[in-house]
Amino acid sequence: YNNVEAFAMTMTKNYCLDRLKSKQAGNLKLVHTNYEDNNTSLQKKVEVNDSLEWMQKIMNTLPEQQRMVLQLRDIEQYEYNEIEEMLEMNPTAIRVTLSRARKAVREQLLKKHSCGISK
C-alpha cells in the first residue's frame, strides 16, 4: 500500500468483519457518539433507546455488504471515495448498495411504525 491511511482502514475493515463473524458478534452494539442532549425527559430517553435498538435489529437483518456501506456512509459519515478504497467497490455499486440498504431500512421502519394502522 502506498497510502498508510488506506492500509489502516483496510486492516480495520478486515478486523471488524472478523469480529462480526465471530461468536462475540452478539455482544457488539450500535453506538451513536454524535448524539448529546443533557435536557431530555425520561420518555424521550426511552424513545431514543427504543429507536436505537430497532435500528440495530433492522441493520442486523441487512446483508453484510449493505450493512457495511450504510454504517460507513450514514453513521460514520465517510465520503464515497473513502468507502470505495476501504471496500474495494466501484462508486456506482456503492450508491446502489446504499440505496437498497436505505430502502430496506425505510420499509422495515414504516412497517414497525404502522403496526395496527390500516390505510
Number of helices: 5
Number of DSSP E strands = 0
Oligomer: single chain
- SSE-based structural type: mainly alpha
Distance between the termini: 55 Å
Mean pLDDT equals: 80
Q: What string gives the helices and strands in order?
A: HHHHH
Radius of gyration: 17 Å
Description:
The protein is mainly alpha-helical. The protein has helices at 4-21, 42-61, 64-75, 80-87, 91-113. The protein has five helices and no strands.
List keywords for this structure.
single chain, 119 residues, mainly alpha, 68% helix, 0% strand, globular
Topology at a glance:
Blueprint: H1 4-21, H2 42-61, H3 64-75, H4 80-87, H5 91-113
In short:
With 119 residues, the chain is an all-alpha fold.
